[in-house]
Amino acid sequence: MSIQDIKETKEMKQCFSKIGGRDGVSARAIEICKKVAESECPRQAVFAIGRMSRLLQVCKEDDYWLEKANVGKSLEYYAVKQASRNNGNFTQAIDAFGDEKR
């Protein structure tokens, strides 16, 4: 992580402490996901990856959220592996792994 990333992450953490803490981070993640889902635009999806990675940096400062983010990373790893075995069908892959139960 660059010095600029560290500085911006610290600033974001301070901002989130003013706008809801953990709930604020979660709300922002949901907003980002909704925007991508509504647009169905590949470019917006990639922007969302960057935005979410920034939120992940904030989550790394919180043990509980870091644990949940790591579960999400594992879920995605196994979803991609399953989808590669199911002709790219992520719906079956995620259902097969039980994503909705976590």
Notes on the protein architecture:
It is a single chain. The chain is an all-alpha fold and 102 residues long. The protein folds into two domains: 1-61; 63-102, no CATH class. It has helices at 3-18, 21-39, 42-59, 63-85, 90-97. Helix 1 packs across helix 3 (42-59). The mean pLDDT is 86.
Could you estimate the helical fraction of the residues in percent? over 70%
The tally of structural domains comes to 2
Rough shape? globular
Strand content: under 5%
Residue stretches low in confidence (pLDDT < 50, at least 5 long) are none
**How many whole angstroms does the radius of gyration measure?**
15 Å
- String of helices and strands: HHHHH
How far do the termini sit from each other? 29 Å
Mean pLDDT: 86
**Major sheet summary line:** none
| Structure summary, number of beta strands | 0
What structural category do the secondary elements indicate?
Answer: mainly alpha
**Count of helical segments?**
5
